[in-house]
Structures are given as structure tokens and as C-alpha cells.
């Protein structure tokens, strides 16, 4: 990997292993790198422990989405989903467990897959991508059992509400659609750009990040990042963040979001921006929190750089892992 | 230890060769034959005591020797007392240190517990803060909508107006019915009268026709 390629690398997706000791990251060259967190966080960590323990090419196109189940790492690139066993990856074997494609209507162009989530209730995988539809695949059999149609433009992000078993999807058409996962029917459609307080017409109407916490939902992208109360379907707070936010999560009493701009923003539910922590990449695409393992409880962010910043205390950058 | 020293010195003198062994041995034993310090004092005391018992001293010499032995004994006792005190002191210091050690251990564990407590407190406080924030956010949205009492009052006023208007409508309808009926009565009476008049006319014309027919016959 030459210096020019390193310069142009962007990290699009990240996922922690089920044990919480490894981090997998996918970049725009189709490579997945596995980093050992226990080595990087140990007291005698060195420069070498910040390099990946395994780096392989997983897809032809960029790896837009990574997801970890209890045993496997799922990666999605241009239209296909591959599964890699974590146990095998830790042993540095790069053979995929399986590769599947959702059934697309046109076989001419292969749409990319932008987001994947797991529905734990019925063990199904929900993917959304460039063909404007959401495909649901049963994890055990591998059959794509249903398609949710409704969006008029490609889907950026997906989210799942555990309590009501609803799927939320946000897309380029500016609509956040809520689907019931049991009946596969649309329940609501919120067009965020139509609300004056959130809309930012200079950026567009696309929704690129969605997060949900029981009754509350965060959505942002072209319109400002805003907190919505889902019962009343009304925006309660709008966050005054300058750029377009690409990923946001709820964490304890804070909301953390990353997007354009070399910082991670910490916000409160009331609508105030509490802090902006600087990072190395000039703009960030993905944020991941390792909550499964209490020893390696870190937050990692990646974006337009070959470096992935690791935060042990969420208020400042500890060190960077590098592709 | 004195033997070793003697041996070393013996080796050195062998090299030199000029002084005989006996001389060396005698010299060493004279200086260092009894051991060092307290040990030496005790040995010297023992030797002088045996010498004093066995030899014939003149009374003054014997007495002075006796005095010397007493002082030596006193010195030995003094040094022993000192060592005993030091030993006691060391024991007490050890106990003291053990106590401090145990104390520090206890405070470490209690500090750990306090830290865990504080962490729980922080989690609780964060949850409370999040709930408050959510509450505030919802309250803001709710405030934007108009007050419930006002809306209720408006609804009541509208209700009353509606009732009044329907009352009026009822009245008007009743009146309309009444007038309709009155007109109906009037019209039927007129029609009946017309009918009777026509009948009468017809009867009259029939009568005249009959009379003219009779006349013509």
C-alpha cells in the first residue's frame, strides 16, 4: 500500500468482535483490517500493536457496512454480503463463510449495500442499499424472505426499535420510514426536510444517520441533527452542528455524533452541544462504541484518513490505529 | 573470626619470612585472642576471675582486681540491658508497622468501595439528567401548543352557540309548519268552496236546461 493510496483511504465502517477484543474496519479499497484491541490497550503497547493483525481484500468495491453477530462478521460491499467467522479471522484465515446477494429486480447494475442491522427477535438480517428497497434475510436459512418498498431514492441508514419491533430507514429522498417488522408494512413516514426548524435546504434533504432509544429518535444528514419524540412524531430539539452528520449514537445521557469536520460532538438531549473533541481525520464517517467488554471500553472513529482514532476516555483522543 | 584474621596475617608474614611464627601467633593472640567487644569483655572477665581465684595476690592487689572485675561485670550487665531494650523496641516497632499496614489495607478497600459507590451514583445522576432533558424537550414542544383550558372554553362557547342556533332553527321550522298547515287549511277550504260553487252552478245550469227542454217539448 503506497503512500498515495494511504492518503486517499477512507474508512467507511467499523465493527467490534463479540468478545470485544478486536476491531474490524472496512475502507474504500474493499479491504478489511482486523486490529487487536487488547494489544493496543495493554501497558506495553508499541507502534506495531497499532497496526492491523490481519488485512485482506474482502470485496471489489468499498466496504460500506460491517456488522458483528455472535459468531460472524458480516461485510457488505457492492451488492453482496459476505460472512467471515470471527474465530477464523483471529487465526488469520481469510476464507469467507458464505456470500449472498439479495434478489435485485434489474440484473444490469448491482446496487451497493449501505446499511445492515440484525433483528434479534427473529434472527434476521435487514439490509438497505442502492435499489431503494429494504431486504430481509433469514440468518439461518439464508433466504431473502421479504422486501420493503417505499423509498424513492437509495437508503443510507437503518435502525431497529427493539420494544415495538419496528425498522426505521432513512434515505436520500429525505424520508424516515418506519416499518413494522412482523407484518412488513409501513407504519409512518416522516419527511424531515419539511419541518422548518430542522431543514437546511443548502445541504439537501438526505438523511444519513439514524439512531433510536426507545421513544426517541435521532436523525440528521442534510437537515440538522435533530432529536424526535416518536410517540408524538415531533422534533423536540435541533442541534446547532455546522456540518452534515454521518453517524450518531445515544450513550448514557449524551448524544455523540460524527460527520463533516474533524471532531466528535458530544450533545445533550436539550439541544446544547457540550463538547467537540478533535480527531485526526478531516471528516468522519463512522463511530463505534465497544460496550460489550468492560476492560476495553473504547470509542473508535474513522473517516477520510487511514488512521482510526481510539478514545479510552471519551473526552480526548488516546491514540490512533493505522491501516 | 579471629582465627581467620590470624591465618591471613600468618600468610602475610610467611611472605615476609623475617618474623617467626611464634612471634606472630603470640602477637595476634595477645591483641585479639578474646574476640571483639562484649564477647571479649566476658572472656576477659572469666579469665581474670579464674586468675584471681587461683593466684596469690596481696590484699590491695586482690581488692583492686576484684574492683576491676566488678566494673567489668557492671559494664557487661549494662550492655546486656541495652541490647534487651533495643530488642523490645524492635518488637514494638514491628507491631506498630503491622498495625499501620493493616490500617492502610483497610483504607484501600474502603476507598475501592467508595469508588464503586460513586460510579453507581454517577450512573444514576446521568440517567436522571437524561430524563430531565427529555422532559424539558417534550415540555418545550407541548408549550408550543395552546393551553387546554382556553381551548375547552372556546369549545364550550361554540357548543352553546350551536345549541342556541339549533333552538332558533327549531322554532323557525315549527313556525313554518304551522303556516304551512294554516295555508293548507285555507287552500282546501277555498277549493271546497270552489267545488261547491261549481256544483251549484252546474246544478243551476242543469235545472235551466231541464226547464227549457220541458218547455220545448
From TrEMBL, chain A:
GO cellular component, one term: THO complex
WD repeat copies, ranges: 148-189
PROSITE patterns per the UniProt record, alphabetical: WD_REPEATS_1, WD_REPEATS_2, WD_REPEATS_REGION
Alphabetical list of Gene3D superfamilies matching this protein: YVTN repeat-like/Quinoprotein amine dehydrogenase
SUPFAM superfamilies cross-referenced by the UniProt entry: WD40 repeat-like (SSF50978)
Keyword terms: Repeat, WD repeat
GO biological process: mRNA export from nucleus
Highest taxon above the source species: Eukaryota
Family: Belongs to the WD repeat THOC6 family.
PANTHER family: THO COMPLEX SUBUNIT 6 HOMOLOG
UniProt protein name: THO complex subunit 6 homolog
Annotated source species: Sinocyclocheilus anshuiensis
Gene name for this UniProt entry: thoc6
UniProtKB/TrEMBL annotation, chain B:
Name the record gives this protein: THO complex subunit 7 homolog
Any Gene Ontology CC annotation: THO complex part of transcription export complex
Classification via Pfam families: THOC7
Chain coiled-coil ranges: 101-182
Family the UniProt entry places it in: Belongs to the THOC7 family.
Keywords: Coiled coil, Nucleus
GO biological process terms held by the UniProt record: mRNA export from nucleus; mRNA processing
Domain of life: Eukaryota
PANTHER family: MAINTENANCE OF KILLER 16 MAK16 PROTEIN-RELATED, THO COMPLEX SUBUNIT 7 HOMOLOG
Gene: thoc7
Gene source species: Sinocyclocheilus anshuiensis
